[in-house]
Write a structure and sequence with these properties.
With 106 residues, the chain is mostly helical. The chain is built from three helices and no strands. Helix 1 packs across helix 3.
């Protein structure tokens, strides 16, 4: 039986998803705790309130996980600060050409 090593990028994605969904749980918890726009009253007074909380957590978790993963990936980029640029050729802009206008008023 062979064991396969999980790629580092997959591990990073799973970790980012876990952090994103944990942050979403805290966010939704704070929305309910501070009763933003009367959300706690709506959720607690409805028979589908638990479903609404789960949906808010999942949808915010997807967004927060994506942001977390994007931040991690973009922070992995190497700095490209070497000044080895190519030749700097000046760009010649076109010069205006005078145009004569014939008056055709008959």
């Amino acid at each position: 039986m062979t064991t396969q090593k999980t790629p580092d990028l997959i591990k990073l994605y799973i970790k980012s998803c876990a952090i994103g969904f944990a942050a979403a749980a805290v966010f939704v918890g704070m929305l309910l705790a501070f009763d933003v726009v009367g959300l706690w009253g709506l959720v607690s007074g409805s028979s589908a309130g638990i479903l609404a909380v789960i949906m808010m957590w999942i949808f915010n978790g997807i967004v927060f996980a994506g942001v977390q993963f994007g931040i991690k990936i973009m922070s992995m980029a190497e700095d490209d600060d070497d000044d080895r640029g190519g030749k700097h050729i000046p760009v010649h802009l076109a010069e205006p050409i005078p145009v004569r206008h014939a008056d055709q008023r008959g």
